[in-house]
Amino acid sequence: MMEHFFYGLTQVFEWQNLLYMLLGVIAGIVVGGLPGLSVTIALALMLPFTFGMPASTAMLLMLGVYCAGTYGGSIGAILLKTPGTPASAATAADGFALSQQGKAGRALNISLYASVIGGLVSGLVLLFVSPQIASFALKFGPPEYFMLALFGLTIVAGVSGQSLIKGLITACFGMLIATIGLDPMTGSPRFTFEQTFLQSGIPLIPALIGLFAISEIMNQSAKRREKISTAVNFQHERFGWKHMFPFRKTIIKSSFIGVIIGAIPGTGGSIASFLSVNEAQRVSKKPKEFGNGSEESVAAAEAGNNGTTGATLIPMMTLGVPGDVITAVLLSALLIQGLQPGPQLFQSHGDLVYTVMVGFIVVNIIMFIVGKLAIRWFAKVTILPSSVLFPVVLMFCLIGSYAYNYSFHSVWIAIVFGLIGYMLPKFGFPVIPILIGMILGPMAERSLRQALVLSEGSLFIFIERPLALTFLILIILSIFLPMLRKAYDQKHQEVITGTKTEKM
């Protein structure tokens, strides 16, 4: 093991590999920050360039794009309320609120530091405990996936604003949208209205662009704001590791949430980031700030989604099972090099495996350096005149929607969801639960139906299996603990008020 580790260390620090990692990081940040151009698209575009490269160089280039693209999605989320990737959707509300308060530079720094810490934690776990986590992930079956999705839906309570009922309504609306397409069990079309483009379902990225980006352009245009943010002095704002100290517990916890979620095939950064924000709000001393410009929320979301990056490589490398679309592309890069991921990869090509693992950590360090140097330039986007900024952002939104599957249908879907995202908040309905429903709905439906087939219709399967029962307990706790805490706080406040009245 140590021999492979030191060999990987020497490979990573060869100047050619360092250069390709740097290029990958720059490309990932740029593509990840543009609306609609997801990490998957960036990796797919880079894949042809790996032909003829040594296997280690090709994988290090792809890792640079992957890690930086995941972080880059937060840039648009914070500055323009336009998440560059679905994993950054949880960052949009609080990040953009901070930007409007003149704290764009601070929000970008928090995002960068939290992303790097999440990535480093994920990388260390990948390096030292990947086989153990992979074996744990193998224990997940349909009942566990369903309970995990149900646990994820408890997030709705934390993002529903003043009305939980309205949040649940919009979450159900998102889950209803997720049923459009082909039935996952029978393959028959449903709710497609004889439109062939709907058979593949409502694509997430155009819907995401519409809900957050196009709707925000409509809002800002209606307010006739001259600039997105004012009174921000980026040149004199200093930000270092000491400023992250208040968020240390949140970031570490969120990073490990990301690691656990990322190691489970079929989940991903979106679920991890929302779960991380929900957990951070649950234990926060300032829960009312969440959704209105909470720095802790930004730190939790970015640590959570970047915590998945290394963990998603665990099932891919140890089992040959891609955890999501992104790792499927990375798996393709390995196959192109004539390598077969799986248990034999560690025995036959241990030097390459450890080069990838060590390179993952170095990529995050390079990402920090590049991001730190570029933050002041990112932040200047907020002081551009809206007459210039909004048309450019709208153009990227529409291009990104079209580039998702090279269809104008995706453009119309983005516009429709833009109108939905613009109108619903005017009647007090939050839009984030729609996205949560669309993300978790397919997993919940598929897993529930598969579990009931396995149990021949018996619901006891969800309490007979230890992992499923654990998630059920977590669901109950996540629902009732905040209620008990709120009741306790109210009672405590009444006691304090009564004591003050007696003294008077």
TrEMBL record:
Residues 18-435 form the DUF112 domain. The keyword Membrane applies. InterPro entries: DUF112_TM. It comes from the Bacteria. This is BH2009 protein. Keywords: Membrane, Transmembrane, Transmembrane helix. The chain crosses the membrane at residues 20-47, 59-80, 110-129, 150-177, 197-218, 256-277, 319-339, 351-371, 383-404, 411-439, 459-481. It comes from Halalkalibacterium halodurans (strain ATCC BAA-125 / DSM 18197 / FERM 7344 / JCM 9153 / C-125).
